[in-house]
Amino acid sequence: MYAMSTKRLDKKEALELLKGSDVVTLGAEADRIRKALHPEGVVTFVVDRNINYTNVCINQCRFCAFYRDKDAPDAYLLAKDELFRKIEETIEQGGTQILIQGGLHPDLDLDFYTDMLRAIKERFQINVHGFSPPEIQYIAKKTGLSVRETLLTLKEAGLDSIPGGGAEILSDRVREVMSPKKIRTREWIEVMEEAHRIGMRTTATMMFGALERNEDIVAHLDEIRSLQDRTGGFTAFIPWTFQPLNTEIGNSINTETEKAALKPNLATAVDYLKVLALSRLYLDNIENIQASWVTQGLKVAQVALRFGANDFGSTMLEENVVRAAGVSYRVSKEDIINAIRAAGFKPAQRDTYYNIIRFF
């Protein structure tokens, strides 16, 4: 935990900045804060792989292009041999982490998850960053355990840390329209708070540019900051933008039906940079802000390093969810290193917990 020396923004001030400030002014202030927090000028990244063990999901979120129904011809559940092959490839390329997530599959129980975790840990020395809050809540409800009991069971089996997926926008007004079957804000917060209480570190995310208003973005940031005040368990914050292709919400853009209520306010690169900068200013108790080359591309991610971001995210040797929505930026470790250098920073590989492994 740490705090900036400047006065803490309140929600009213943050909303005024988001609505009224020009992007350059907001970016300059965020860059000033970034320099104060990270004066050494190092920008980090992690070598990892996103592994989705299943695309079957009962939530059927309107913003998601990845999920499939159980009986869909392209529905899958990853076999262990394939899982192990993916992990082996990750380690061979210097990876230190796997991010493992999936849909809410109706046939999977707690034993499936603990067996998978133990099998991974028996074979590999790698950090398992896995199972977002919707997955944790679903497992807990299916097994009749509390969230805390579920987390302790998964931790004992080999779960090391938890990603911030499933947050989207932490506003139940938005969630009711965008993902009516998904957990609500309080349930997402509950998982993260319980994880922090038992010593697990997590990240926090925000997906914007869909159906939210500026007030919802600020409310989301305030939920994250308030929890961090209580626990100090977030390692980083990652904002990224909604990708509409192949989604129900995206398909509503060109339809004149009752789906008109789902028409999104798609975020531009300028919108992304503005929200990123505000995140750096508002989240005064989270040390690391991550750029999203996955949704923005390499060049905008470079610019993000002057708008408050100090981390370039992951090499993402595999990514499926955003790609299903029609966005397929692909970069190598060398691309990331060169992009960081070209932006005037020192590149460094980190682990899940932001410990530096090596400089380049």
Structure explained in plain terms:
α1 crosses α9 (214-231) and α5 crosses α6 (147-157). The chain has one domain (11-354): Alpha-Beta Barrel (TIM Barrel), CATH 3.20.20. With 360 residues, it is of the alpha/beta class. The chain is globular. 43% of the residues lie in helices and 14% in strands. It has helices at residues 11-20, 23-37, 80-92, 110-123, 133-143, 147-157, 172-178, 185-197, 214-231, 248-251, 269-282, 293-296, 298-304, 321-324, 333-342; strands at 42-46, 48-52, 97-101, 127-130, 161-162, 201-208, 234-241, 288-289, 311-314, 346-350, 356-359. α4 links the parallel β3 (97-101) and β4.
Q: Total domains, how many?
A: 1
Strand order of the largest sheet: 9-1-10-11
The CATH topology: TIM Barrel
Number of helical runs? 15
- Can you tell me the residue ranges where pLDDT is under 50 for at least 5 consecutive residues? 1-5, 255-259, 321-328
H-E order: HHEEHEHEHHEHHEHEHHEHHEHHEE
Instruction: State the total count of DSSP E strands.
Output: 11
Q: How far apart lie the N and C ends?
A: 28 Å
Please tell me what the overall shape is: globular
Helix content: 40-55%
Fraction of residues in β-strands: 5-15%
CATH architectural designation: Alpha-Beta Barrel
CATH class wording: Alpha Beta
Secondary-structure-based class equals alpha/beta
Main sheet, how many strands, which sense, barrel?
4 strands, mixed
User: Would you identify the CATH H-level superfamily?
Assistant: Aldolase class I
Computed over alpha carbons, the radius of gyration is 19 Å
**Average pLDDT for all residues:** 89
